[in-house]
Amino acid sequence: METKDVRDRLNNPLIVFYLFFAVFAIISPVMGVAQTSVMFPGAFVVGVIVCGYFAVRRKELKLNIVPLMMMVFVAMLFMMTDKAGAQYWAAAFGLGLFAASLWSTKLVDAEIAFIIGIFLVSTFIHAVPALITDYIEEIDPYYDYKWGAMIFDTGKIPVHDWWTYPKELGLDRSLMPFGTSLAMAYFGEILTFIGMSYHQAAILISVLAAGFSVVVMYMLIKELLLNRENAKVAAMLGAFLLMMSIGWSTKAHATDSENDAFGGFMLLMLFYIFMYAINRKNLMVSMLVGGLLFGWFAVAWDGHKIFTMVGAIAISIVSFYGLFNGKRTIDYLKHYAGIILIGNILFRFILHKPGVIFSFLMPSGIELASFALVVFAVGLNEFMLKYKDRVSKHHVLIIVAAFVIGLAVLGPTVWYNFYKVGFVDIGQPSVVFKTIAEQQPFASSISDYITNLPKVFGLMSLIALICAPFMLYVGLKEDNFGSIIMFSWLMPFAWGFYFKSQYIFLASIPFALAGGWIGQYVISSKKDSDGLKIIPTIIIICGVILYTPIGEFVSNYGVTSIFYNVATYDRMGWESTLQYFKNSTPENTAIVTWWDYGHWLTAVSHRFVLIDNLQHDHWEIQDVARFFMKVQTEDEAMKILQEYQDIYNKDPYKSMFGGVKLNYAAIDWTMIGKSGAMRFIATGNLTNQADGEYDSYTVCQFLPQYSNINGSLTTGSDGAFAMTKTLVYGCTYNKDGLNGIVFSITNNNMNVEAITQEGNRIPWKTWISSKDCSLMGVRSPQDILSVSMQYYNKINYVPPMYTNFVYASGPFKNFMLTRLYFGDNIESYKALGLANVNWSKLQHFTKDRDFEDGFVETWKINYNSTVSAAPVSGASPFSIGGGLK
Amino acid sequence: MIPIGILEALLVMFGAVLIPGFFISRVFIKGVGVLERLVFSMSFGLLPMYLVYLLTKNGIVLFSKELVMGVIIISICSVFLDARIRKRVVDWWFTN
Q1: SS (H, E, C) A48-103
Q2: Which single residue of A382, A884, B52, B84 has CA 20 to 30 Å from A418?
């Protein structure tokens, strides 16, 4: 661009207006809701009128449609400041306005402006969780966080996990891909130059992936649809769909320090390199760039298997079809094999056991099956086409024979490795996995799938499924390998997601990719508007609007949830407990608690646990479940713990850490809700995977809408007037048929009644003796009743321990979880006739601490142990860098 | 509005990938457009991490700030493997 051209382009008043309004929108979140709701919508409406006027004057209205629409959206968002997240959307649209204005004022072309815009908006919206909190989110991210922190602090790559599963003497991690953890440590070192450190890098690594991924998605779709009409439109649509995908945002957001988002970014890039090389017939790019990237990818995330599988399916489809249309596919195999073989060599220099520099690991079943399928398909294609003169008479017979042999030999292996134990895992109905929500199917039927799919991937996901057969048709008939790749990526994951809701993130990428495919068929000329292309054009316009926060209120697609993928109350409620264990207990301390808190205790407190969220050893998980939810005497409970303490007393724990003391038990409020899962596992049969018992505690929650806090005037039997207040607690489903409990309080008297499923009221004394049950709570009944009355109109802000009773019947009255968690206040329940238990004083458990008003409670475990309180060498897995043997 | 701290950290992290990646990609990939160069920069920008992992996993050196910076500097200097760049630098040095 000449200087004169730049000067002419800058001589445009719209630049100033757009920049002004863009900055206004971007900084609006810090200005406060009250101010924005009054002035800003009006200012933007005036801005639209003024800018529209200038655009018309300059005869550039069409060029300015996009920034004007952005300003209209911002104005609408400013009128919705009561809606959660509206202020963040206003800032996001402000960034979009900035990028759009670069194009409409002709400073950059449309493609560059789009890339700038989508990169900025994607980075921003996925960074919003970091504005809300700096807690790492949820449970699983702490696993990668822990290893990254160890690399950062000790300089060593972990090779053994000593923190967990003592019956297995920990877990060998020498073959574990820690690339993402290392990347977090890498960025952490770089951030020290600006006064930050590892934690900030861990919080933001998924934002990096989110920002880069939309750019790579755009470029990938352009390569997949190279030289096809409107490929850029399809690419823009696909990048937009990825950015706004709820499924994608479950991992690609700030505070998620897992390897999924970073892995997703590398997967997109690997496919881009593959397609780039194929389109330009450049084997060097495949082998060098693709091979290097695959090698790095395999040490960072298991998702490299997706490339192997999807590539194999696509090449096989084209190879088999090529038998009929004469297309040879040996070139595809060269690129595919080049990437995979070189990558497999490179990663084995890293993922190996200590003491060697290279490993001869067997590839996974799905990779072997995929590679074999490709070699078979391309081999058949080469043979038939190269020697077609010699085989023409027996052409059909050979093809049929090849299919039969291929199906017989490869079919079972592919089926087993993909469906049964590979990607879909339906062949693993273990007792433990049956209790995990994300291991369950996403849908119960096809209609359920179709109804719920748009809630996580948007309307265009259904369009992607409808277009799938057309993708296959276009790919084969019009020789577009990119469409075959999209089809081959979409179908396995659309199917796999049906059976396993855990694949919400993995499936988000192909759904966005395939959703963009229809973008090729938009109207691009006046002639097209009279044809069928009007249909996809309308679908895309409606679809795009429905993905925005404006469309959220129409389509129920909760895109604003992208901002609120943050640590929940559970995690924050545990912070003081985690810091207590870290700062106030010896380094060689172990804690018995449920698996959910295993990663937190090892990552934050740097203490040992028996089990964690890896769910690696189901027998040890069952031990812990039995400790809390099966044994009914203290002796039986101690037997379980003593087994573990005996292991901790011997080598290698003794020589490495001076022994480990299993000295604490920790329980939190959410274990009440998880009691069903714990009971199921505790009573299940892990040998034949027979189900355990379906039973749990019942939680009775205060229901202000059915209560009478202010009281009503009643007449007593003596004729005197009295004020009676009524508090109603509604109970979760239970086998006893208890629907609720009513407390009627008159002066100093309290009458308690049980409400049955049929609505009948039974005096509590009668109920308790007929059902062998008790009512208990973390807080005393007086506390619960008085807090319920005081805060009845703010009940959602009150910790649940103050507004919920727990109902236990049968054996649930005497489990260790019951005796520990509710033991403090049981006498006050007994005194009011609410509980009927006969517990002897605990000999081995002493109450240690309460945290967050009883949200978490800890107990010291006392047994005769010869292990010293502090390790002689002061060692922990942290200080020796993950246990180099 | 993103606080300055988060903005700063993101800029540094994006730069930590793109800058060494750009220089490495100049050596191996030639004659591509701006957007292709951007994607290749992202791809090659991960290579220094692979190198760090390789060296630390095999016990050759401990993970440290010095190692990270060293690998990044080597990555940037790898651009001199490109003969055209070397020639340009030499010509500039001896002309001025």
Answers
A1: HHHHHHHHHHCCCCHHHHHHHHHHHHHHHHHCCCCCCCHHHHHHHHHHHHHHHHHH
A2: A382
State the Cα–Cα distance between residues A509 and A269, nearest whole angstrom.
12
Interchain contact, A156 vs B49, CB within 8 Å: no
Sign of torsion over alpha carbons A58, A62, A68, A70 = negative
Residue A91 sits at the vertex; the CA angle it makes with A89 and A96, to the nearest 5 degrees, is 90
- DSSP class of B46: T
Q: Which residue, chain included where needed, has tokens 């920790």?
A: A666
Residue written as tokens 């199906």? A407
Tell whether A202 is within 8 A of chain B (Cβ): no
Beta bridge partners of A96: none
A424 band by pLDDT with thresholds 50, 70 and 90 = low
Separation in Å, CA A777 to CA A179, A672, A780, A815: 45, 11, 6, 15
Cβ contacts of A208 within 8 Å, gap of 6 or more: A187, A262, A265, B10, B13, B14, B17
The pLDDT, as a whole number, for residue A324 is 86
Nearest Cα of chain B lies from the Cα of A845 at a distance, in angstroms, of 43
pLDDT for residue A874: 43
Amino acid (one-letter) located at B64? S
H or E element, residue A517:
helix A504-517
Contact assessment for residue A142 and residue A136, using Cβ atoms and an 8 Å cutoff: yes
Name the CA radius of gyration of chain A, rounded.
31
Tell which residue, A276, A278, A267, has the closest CA to residue A242.
A267
For chains A and B, count residue pairs whose Cβ atoms are closer than 8 Å: 139
Q: Which amino acid is at B55?
A: L
A212 shares contact with chain B (CB less than 8 Å): yes
* pLDDT for residue A873 is more than 60: no
Q: Judging by DSSP bridges, how do beta strands A738-746 and A749-756 pair with one another?
A: antiparallel
Contact: B13, A187; criterion CB under 8 Å: yes
To the nearest whole Å, the CA of B59 is away from the closest chain A CA by 8
Q: Which two tokens stand for residue A733?
A: 């489903």
User: A81: number of CA atoms within 13 Å, CB side?
Assistant: 17
Could you tell me if B2 lies within 8 Å of chain A, comparing CB atoms?
A: yes
DSSP string, A144-178: HHHHHHHHHHHS----EE-SS-GGGTSEE-TTS--
**Rounded to whole angstroms, how far apart are CA atoms A130 and B6?**
8
- CB within 8 Å of chain B, chain A residues 263-302: 266, 269, 272-273, 276, 285, 288-289, 292-293, 295-296, 299
Task: Tell me what pLDDT residue A732 has.
Answer: 94
| The CA-based dihedral angle spanning residues A787, A792, A796, A797, taken in that order and rounded to the nearest 10 degrees | -50
Tell me whether A147 touches chain B (CB under 8 Å): no
What's this model's pTM, rounded to 2 decimal places?
Answer: 0.90
How many Cβ atoms from other residues are within 10 Å of residue A253's Cβ?
26
pLDDT value, residue A865: 45
Min distance A90 CA to chain B CA atoms (Å): 10
Strands A661-668 and A589-592: parallel
- List chain B residues with CB under 8 Å of A120: none
Q: How much is the pLDDT for A499?
A: 86
Q: Is A115 on the interface with B (CB under 8 A)?
A: yes
At how many degrees (to 10) do helices A198-224 and A481-499 cross?
130
ipTM over 0.90: yes
Q: In Å, how far is A465's CA from the nearest CA of chain B?
A: 29
Contacts of B44 in chain A (CB under 8 A): 289, 292
Give the contacts of A646 (CB within 8 A, at least 6 positions apart): none
Q: What angle, rounded to 10 degrees, do the helices at A304-325 and A330-347 form?
A: 160
Contact B35 A111 (CB under 8 A): yes
Residue with tokens 């990119």: A482
